Amino acid sequence: MPDQPNPRLGVRLKQLREECGLTQEDLALKADITVSTLSRIERDASSPRWNTVTKIADALGISVRDI
Fold first, then answer.
1. Which helix (H) or strand (E) holds 60?
2. Which element (helix H / strand E) includes 35?
3. Among 3.40.1010.20, 2.60.40.60, 3.40.190.10, 1.10.260.40, what is the CATH number of 7-66?
4. Distance of alpha carbon 15 from alpha carbon 6, whole angstroms
5. Which residues contact 25 (CB under 8 A, 6 or more apart)?
6. How far apart are alpha carbons 2 and 26 in whole angstroms?
7. Of 3, 23, 66, 67, which sits with the fewest C-beta atoms within 10 Å of its C-beta?
């Protein structure tokens, strides 16, 4: 059975992004990922790879543990 995305991850990332006052475009640029990748993650339509989560956390200035 394939891994299912964690439905809370996308919600949490969107919440953190919005708390930082960033658009999806802003965060994607800072994290060096595509806007479509970030959008899929926030909608829980895709499970991100660990390095993508790390990039997003770094771009938000937080620890991965805070996600």
1. helix 50-60
2. helix 35-42
3. 1.10.260.40
4. 15
5. 35
6. 31
7. 3
